């Protein structure tokens, strides 16, 4: 792969995926997105991996879809290439996916971070949907996910002005989980991942699926979905082990079975 670096065993049960087009601020071209989709699919199937961290570098998580690649395209080219269909696959990742964001997370970069389950931000992170400044609008979920994450007023402002949200503002509006000094953002993401990696991977997948359902359905249907997934956890050895360990006053050892 040219634009993605993967370490499947960055820490125990934790994979690290790096967007790796630093000179272009990790602009998300078609090849990078295909490599990312394939990587996440492979990690989803890797039984040793329980949590995935997606990151860029200190200066940029990603500065958006590749404008130079899109510049000469017609509407029909865009429709035929349908570049955002790759993003639908990324959303289907079953394992917990943490974005560790420093620097620019703009346009498609912000949308990619929001496609992840949680965002750990460095204090230098900047979020925004500046597509309006180049005569277009968000196309990979920005108008929907940002609005759900931070509310209509602020989302509308960001989408219509192209202004950036600082890391502290992003924390205030609930877009990110935490903000840490820039030199610690990856470490902070790893700490979060390590906590989750100790849990039952079966329960983690089902719980992730259920939380995400809250954004896609009405309450009764969501509650029904949650209950079914809760009952399904009782098909796992991890449920037996987790409850037995509680009774025996010891730490559970989850295997993902
Ligand atoms: N696409 C292609 N190339 C990009 C890029 C992008 N989104 N963002 C940055 N780059 C390239 C620059 O062209 C430049 O390349 P050259 O050195 O070859 O000229 C290199 O990365 C470094 O960028 P700058 O010199 O501009 O760096 P800066 O620090 O002065 O500015 C920035 C940083 C404010 C992020 C600025 O690069 C910028 O505004 N980038 C575009 C942001 C943007 O509009 N993103 C939305 C894209 S559209 C989209 O994402 C649609 C969608 O919904 C998916």
Automatic annotation (TrEMBL):
Pfam families: ECH_1 (PF00378). It catalyses: a 4-saturated-(3S)-3-hydroxyacyl-CoA = a (3E)-enoyl-CoA + H2O; a (3S)-3-hydroxyacyl-CoA = a (2E)-enoyl-CoA + H2O. GO terms for biological process: fatty acid beta-oxidation. Keywords: Fatty acid metabolism, Lipid metabolism, Lyase. GO terms for molecular function: enoyl-CoA hydratase activity. The keyword Lipid metabolism applies. The keyword Cytoplasm does not apply. Its EC number is 4.2.1.17. InterPro entries: ClpP/crotonase-like_dom_sf, Enoyl-CoA_hyd/isom_CS, Enoyl-CoA_hydra/iso, Enoyl-CoA_hydra_C. Gene3D superfamilies: 2-enoyl-CoA Hydratase, Chain A, domain 1, Lyase 2-enoyl-coa Hydratase, Chain A, domain 2. Could possibly oxidize fatty acids using specific components. Belongs to the enoyl-CoA hydratase/isomerase family. This is enoyl-CoA hydratase.
């Amino acid at each position: 792969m040219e634009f993605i670096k993967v370490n499947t065993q960055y820490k125990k049960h934790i994979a690290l995926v790096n967007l790796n087009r630093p000179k272009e601020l990790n602009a998300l071209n078609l090849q990078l997105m295909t490599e990312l989709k394939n990587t996440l699919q492979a990690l989803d199937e890797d039984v040793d991996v329980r949590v995935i961290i997606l990151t860029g570098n200190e200066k940029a998580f990603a500065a958006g879809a590749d404008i130079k690649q899109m510049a000469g395209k017609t509407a029909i080219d865009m429709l035929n290439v349908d570049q955002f269909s790759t993003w639908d696959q990324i959303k289907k990742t079953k394992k917990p996916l943490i974005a560790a964001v420093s620097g620019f997370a703009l346009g498609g970069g912000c949308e990619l971070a929001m496609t992840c389950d949680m965002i750990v931000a460095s204090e230098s992170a900047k979020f925004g949907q500046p597509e309006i400044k180049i005569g277009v609008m968000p196309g990979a979920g920005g108008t929907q996910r940002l609005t759900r994450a931070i509310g209509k007023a602020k989302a509308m402002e960001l989408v219509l002005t192209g202004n950036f949200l600082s890391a502290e503002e992003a924390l205030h509006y609930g877009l990110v989980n935490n903000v840490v000094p820039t030199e610690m953002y990856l470490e902070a993401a790893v700490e979060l991942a390590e906590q989750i990696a100790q849990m039952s991977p079966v329960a983690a997948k089902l719980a992730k699926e259920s939380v995400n359902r809250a954004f896609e359905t009405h309450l009764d249907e969501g509650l029904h979905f949650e209950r079914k997934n809760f009952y399904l956890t009782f098909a796992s050895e991890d449920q037996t082990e987790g409850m037995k360990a509680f009774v025996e006053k010891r730490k559970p050892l989850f295997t993902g079975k």
